């Protein structure tokens, strides 16, 4: 197995906890969480398994921390939207925009979240928090439907699922650090995707 | 590990090849392809590993067959759209509708396709076919932009990715066989999702 090109090979065992978590999440995303062993993580990090255990108690603790990071940020974004915007239509637009921003900022952690299969209590708890986020967006959409700002011919829950489907898909193709032609700045991408999502919601 | 509730326990080793493949794809989707061993497949099927090898030569051959099923159907749908519809706007709408129908008909195989990480030549080849499908939809969208039927403020490639993000997300929540309240018939769902996707594309 080749060493990861994303694992900085600086002075081992000089990882801080956050850098170690970042590398581990990257390995999870490339090989799958279940297919990743602590031995594989050690190999990618270039340190011993016991050195990993100095930072974290288990593979599952790494997963849980990464999922918490993603979910905390997604929930905080919705909290901010509800505090900052009064109009239902404005709330929906701000929620779409805020969720896209979190996806860019926490892309590896959100990618991990989106691929969960529910094979453990930790995964099931994260999936329940994710469903609660979908429900909150659905409630915003329901209010916007009543205000006439969002199409009324589809249930708010399914509109929330479809909007999040489009939003979440950016983790599969958008790379904020890429300087290849055709890649846009974060703000341009967030604006563009928000327009398309809102176009779909407004009908 | 509990036996799968989806594995029909009828007279072993009485599986036909298609039923065996279906059960294996289901196990892949629940546990992850890489985390699934031939031993796990045998356990879920309730037959021996050697009985599996009677039908298929390897775990990867099962993956390849499932991916081919999904990709063949997606490509055939686009071929049909190009043969049956002349107007660019009509083509895009028919492509969205046709892709949704394939997703419902081949949901387990498409789910497997959507979760690939590119860890083998088989996976990389399937991902390249998937990208070619996205490019074909992008070309239809480009033609529809020129005809004024689709918004022109976002690249056709990114509109294709966003549309497919919304379309593909149905595998996470739509269950055609479910009779729980709120689940709609396939035709109703396909119509509703098509309206939302087209709303986003038209702006």
Explained architecture:
The structure is a homodimer of 203-residue chains. The first copy, chain A, is built from nine helices and no strands. Chain A has 203 residues and is mostly helical. The longest helix of chain A has 26 residues, at 59-84. Chain A is elongated, with a radius of gyration of 19 Å. Chain A binds chain B through residues 29-35, 115, 117, 119, 151, 153-155, 157-159, 161-170, 172-173, 182, 192-193, 195-197, 199-203, and chain B through 29-35, 115, 117, 119, 151, 153-155, 157-159, 161-170, 172-173, 182, 192-193, 195-197, 199-203.
- The CATH architecture category of the largest domain in chain A equals Orthogonal Bundle
Question: What is the subunit arrangement here?
Answer: homodimer
Distance between the termini of chain A: 49 Å
Which radius of gyration of chain A do the C-alpha atoms yield?
19 Å
Shape of chain A: elongated
Number of strands of chain A: 0
- Mean pLDDT across all amino acids of chain A: 91
Q: According to CATH, what is the class of the largest domain in chain A?
A: Mainly Alpha
Number of domains of chain A: 2
């Amino acid at each position: 197995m080749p060493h990861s090109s994303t694992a900085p090979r600086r002075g081992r065992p000089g990882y801080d906890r956050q850098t170690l978590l970042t590398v581990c999440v990257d390995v999870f995303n490339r090989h799958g969480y279940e297919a990743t062993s602590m031995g594989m993580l050690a190999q990618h990090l270039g340190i011993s398994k016991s050195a990993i255990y100095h930072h974290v108690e288990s593979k599952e603790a790494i997963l849980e921390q990464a999922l918490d990071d993603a979910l905390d940020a997604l929930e905080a974004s919705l909290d901010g939207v509800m505090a900052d915007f009064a109009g239902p239509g404005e709330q929906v637009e701000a929620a779409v925009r805020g969720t896209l921003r979190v996806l860019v900022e926490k892309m590896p952690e959100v990618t991990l979240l989106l691929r969960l299969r529910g094979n453990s209590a930790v995964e099931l708890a994260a999936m329940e928090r994710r469903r609660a986020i979908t429900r909150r967006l659905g409630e915003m959409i329901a209010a916007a439907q009543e205000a006439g700002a969002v199409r009324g011919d589809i249930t708010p829950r399914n509109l929330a699922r479809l909007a999040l489907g489009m939003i979440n898909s950016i983790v599969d193709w958008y790379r904020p650090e890429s300087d290849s032609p055709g890649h846009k700045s974060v703000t341009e991408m967030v604006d563009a995707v928000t327009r398309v999502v809102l176009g779909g919601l407004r009908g």
